[in-house]
Amino acid sequence: MDFQLSDEEQLFQKSVHEMLQEKLAPLSRQIDERHEIPSSVLEEMGKMGLLGVTIPEKYGGAGGSITMAALGAMEVGAADPSMATAVYYLLEAGWSHLTSRLGSDALREKLLPAVASNRAFLGIATTEPGGGSDLAAMATRARKDGGRLILNGEKSFISGVAEAKKLGGGHLTLMKTDPPLKHKGLTFAFVPIASKGIQTTVLHNMGRMGISTGIVQYSDVEVPEENIIGEYNRGFYHAMLGFNYARTLVAAACVGATQWALEVGAEYIKKRSAFGSPLAKYEGVSFEYADLAVQLEMTRTMVLKAASLLDAYDRGEKVPMRELNMAVAASKLTAPQLALDAVKKVMVWHGALSYTNETLLEVAMRGILSYVVGAEGALNIMRLILVREMLGPEYLPYR
Ligand SMILES: Cc1cc2nc3c(=O)[nH]c(=O)nc-3n(C[C@H](O)[C@H](O)[C@H](O)COP(=O)(O)OP(=O)(O)OC[C@H]3O[C@@H](n4cnc5c(N)ncnc54)[C@H](O)[C@@H]3O)c2cc1C
């Protein structure tokens, strides 16, 4: 067991940190207010290989590992705690990784170089108005017709709808292809947002304002079979693998946001005085700081363990799937809650100042909440995965 990052990983993290602190960190408030990540930042991220961090070099990516993608997510979360840039980054990294692994050659050649160079946005569409957690209950259907699928239905709360429309790209979309088979009858395929028969609506969110969330409606949309990820009717399992990558990156972004909050908090409590002493001298404050710092270190270690297990899985090593699923679910369960807790406590240390837009704490709180209420999987679903792995599937409430 090695708790040290390799030289290559350390160098990667350092150079990403320096670039993002210079180019992205000063823009966090602007991103929140103007509802857009400046294209200059995305171009810089693309140039550095961040947008295609795990995409193989032959498709224009950096050919890195999930551990490197997680280190990148930590840095993005720390540089823009609104979470908008983190969402953009981790959706692209997580779902392009799955496409690299399971997409057809034609899809990889068409999509991956465009994603890596920010000429296309790649997201995921599984959630529907009728529910997001219970995927097998989805209503979106597709039927085979010659060499294509014909797709009808609706997805909701889909990140990157406006970005995909502006830039090109689309979403890996889960659809029911064999309804009687329930979750064994789902197929996962890339659906370009510019396809004929698609209508979109952008929703008004409360946070992470720099990336849109919206509704996508499909009316007889033609999806070429070469856009299918993995195997027909195996979409549920492929999406679950993709969620393992993406949830690890969500957790990593929340580790970054927690790190940011604690740095902001430490600076403030050292300089703000009350009753003749800096706040950091009062144990009511400093002990909270110490507890949060310990929880941050534990969470970072768990997230890196999840990333490292995923890397081993990708290398084809024999990985205990139970341990892998638990590490990912535990990371997605704890990291967003820790980030929210840290931001809330640091806000209280700041007193009234935190309730104004003089600090970025309110921006961070609104952004992080998206990962507490549901994005990339609700917290109770993470608990259900842990119950399934630890107590056994017979203790799941719906069995
Ligand atoms: C900002 C944002 C961006 C998003 N982006 C995307 C995206 O890009 N693509 C996409 O497909 N989806 C996206 N989502 C949707 C997200 O995946 C869903 O919110 C999530 O899967 C939960 O689904 P739901 O919101 O329909 O809640 P529901 O499934 O209706 O669940 C509601 C509540 O009930 C709890 N619950 C459900 N089942 C159980 C159970 N068996 N036991 C105990 N508790 C349970 C859940 O934990 C949750 O708290 C996004 C969400 C947000 C907030």
Give a structural overview.
The structure is a single chain. This protein has helices at residues 7-23, 28-34, 39-47, 66-79, 84-102, 105-116, 161-167, 235-271, 283-314, 321-350, 361-373, 379-390, and strands spanning 121-125, 141-145, 148-159, 169-176, 186-192, 198-202, 213-224, 273-274, 277-278. A 4-stranded antiparallel sheet has the order 2-3-7-6, with no helix packed on it. Strands 1-4-5 form a 3-stranded mixed sheet, sandwiched between helices. Strand 8 and strand 9 form a beta hairpin. The relative contact order is 0.12. It has 399 residues and is of the alpha+beta class. The mean pLDDT is 96. Helix 9 (283-314) packs antiparallel against helix 10 (321-350). The protein is globular, with a radius of gyration of 21 Å. It contains 12 helices and 9 strands. The two termini are 37 Å apart. Residues 123-127, 131-133, 157-159, 205, 213, 370, 373-375, 377-381, 384, 397 line the site of flavin-adenine dinucleotide.
